[in-house]
Amino acid sequence: MGTGARTDPLAHIRDLFDLDDDVVYLDGNSLGAPPKNVAARVQEVVSRQWGRRLIRSWSEGWWEAPQRVGDRIGKLVGAAPGQVVVADSTSVNLFKALMAAVHGTDRAEIVVDAGTFPTDGYIARSVAELSGLTLRPADPDDLALSDTTAVVLLNHVDYRTGRLLDMAKLTEQVHAVGAKVVWDLCHSVGVLPIELDALNVNLAVGCTYKFLNGGPGSPAFLYVPTEAQPGFHQPLTGWTGHRSPFAMSPDYTPDPGVSRARVGTPDIISMLALDAALDVWDRVDLEDVRAKGLALTAHFRDLVEDLPGIEVITPDGEWRGHQVSLRHPDAATLMRRLVERQVIGDHRPPDVLRFGFAPLYNTFEDAERAATALGELL
Amino acid sequence: MGTGARTDPLAHIRDLFDLDDDVVYLDGNSLGAPPKNVAARVQEVVSRQWGRRLIRSWSEGWWEAPQRVGDRIGKLVGAAPGQVVVADSTSVNLFKALMAAVHGTDRAEIVVDAGTFPTDGYIARSVAELSGLTLRPADPDDLALSDTTAVVLLNHVDYRTGRLLDMAKLTEQVHAVGAKVVWDLCHSVGVLPIELDALNVNLAVGCTYKFLNGGPGSPAFLYVPTEAQPGFHQPLTGWTGHRSPFAMSPDYTPDPGVSRARVGTPDIISMLALDAALDVWDRVDLEDVRAKGLALTAHFRDLVEDLPGIEVITPDGEWRGHQVSLRHPDAATLMRRLVERQVIGDHRPPDVLRFGFAPLYNTFEDAERAATALGELL
């Protein structure tokens, strides 16, 4: 107790979130908690922008929102403006990214990390089938790339174990064989500094409802670096990706910039809820977020690693995201009983308990309360 | 004046909408006006469901929302439960529908109506290229189908002219050559009775932000009839379309039902705003809506068709949706000046003025005020 208040430079940020104090919420890696300003912003969007301005709002900020909000996310992932667009779901953006990455290739295979979040593997399989390539799952420690590799899809943080991959080293490995890399940032954006531009990453996708707190199912993002935009071709050629969408031309000419990755009409209420949620990032430094996340997860790990029957599967040291994953044969039952005690993490079958630590609102006391509850149950 | 109050069985429904009385809003065919209950519902979703229940809300109604809200739309399009899912944008759903329609076909062509809304044509082009078929735009009055036709994509109501196609007759024509039909209902859902099941329509898509008033960019819907579900295969194989999404299996096994058309995590705030917006349909009969829509548009047509320089391009008689489209060489300027006078329609280049009439909230007085303003400008 009390460790947090004395050592936590982000302690005051929790007040920006609408969270009950009796809940220990350790599932922000699945659904982030609501920043307090979101509710009012959504009211403004529904009641004033939609209700009073009606169709006129499309030319008063709505149309450009996918790029404008995208640029805000760009700041969190090391992307200069004009390279990130907010649109669709992560799965749909993965499809765009992979289809674009293999467009026109004469190479034979797509590689995906073997422990990938399922949707990445499913979409990669579809893209391989559509494009006549093979799909090869591979261990990130031994990707076995060659000059037949067209593209490598990697999860920056493993959703089960919390392992963090070395983006710099792996991007270099992929480039060394002349292949492209697509990074899935779902579990790392908002957790730690990312440098997409500096590392010459080819494409990246991520969701916004975990550590970015955009709300349930808030729209995802896609990074297409400036130099890759002219060659970014994918089959979801919806009208909002057109160079002149309101010309209503019968032929599709993609926008010259990142907007070519747009497809249908953007979902404005959710997009602007996300926009509000991002305000908190203007007030924090990602280095502080990272430092607190490592401290929180280390503290929790220390408290639980010797509990009976518990195996910590999250790597120690710096190569981890902001979650601690524990293996226990009764994981499902344990998590149900923890939730009954207002300690909310989640269970991933068959036997993994996940505890996500969001440095913007989780406290060292949260770690202690969760560890105590788990200890009592064991 | 006054024609409305005496003859309009839906007059009281306008009170359910949050609309300013000094605005004549005739663009509900582009963005429907907000039902009053949406604002409170969105607050409930953000503040209670997200804020208090956090991740638990996924198992308290969120997860099934795409099918539950889909069933509500199903009632408006003549689809029995379990055949409509709300997800993604219309463009993305068109891609799924067309890819599924050509899956495994040995036929050579996709046909699209020549006046299609652009995104339909763009997506159909992509699907043709991916699947090795040709794309042929055709006049709906002379589709020239043959046993080489795999699928025909038709817009139920033409977005420019407001012409309504005969779904029964055209579906029969398509089926007569053994092809499949995909109907785009964007401009007809909520305007008139539709009977997808009774007509054995193969697939249908539509948006929810026009006459269904779901809000800007609210998620679209996709109809996959029960008997077509086992054969519905499309490449956006996202995790939420999986038979057991939380098993996190490395292999994709589609859900046996309409949920196989789901892709990524559903956008809950917008989905539940739409859900609230649909409540109004529980209180009206689509036959009344259709009757009022025809009367409103006929009244407006009568008032404007003899104005100088105006050519009405919306068909007379019953084969039209709920808009009146006028051609005038100065259409862009005219619409700008109408909007200045609080008469809000829209302009489609180069020379079309569109006035949409939403029977749930538009009045005969709206038609008269709009016609008067247009007459003064001319």
TrEMBL record, chains A, B:
Pyridoxal 5'-phosphate binds at T90, S91, F117, P118, T119, D120, D184, H187, Y209, W239, T265. GO terms for biological process: anthranilate metabolic process; L-kynurenine catabolic process; L-tryptophan catabolic process to kynurenine; NAD+ biosynthetic process; quinolinate biosynthetic process. SUPFAM superfamilies: PLP-dependent transferases. GO terms for molecular function: kynureninase activity; pyridoxal phosphate binding. It is an enzyme of class 3 (hydrolase). It catalyses: 3-hydroxy-L-kynurenine + H2O = 3-hydroxyanthranilate + L-alanine + H(+); L-kynurenine + H2O = anthranilate + L-alanine + H(+). Its EC number is 3.7.1.3. Keywords: Hydrolase, Pyridine nucleotide biosynthesis, Pyridoxal phosphate. Pathway: Cofactor biosynthesis; NAD(+) biosynthesis; quinolinate from L-kynurenine: step 2/3; Amino-acid degradation; L-kynurenine degradation; L-alanine and anthranilate from L-kynurenine: step 1/1. The keyword Signal does not apply. GO terms for cellular component: cytoplasm. Signal peptide: none annotated. The modification N6-(pyridoxal phosphate)lysine is found at K210. Homodimer. This is Kynureninase. It comes from Saccharothrix tamanrassetensis. The gene is kynU.
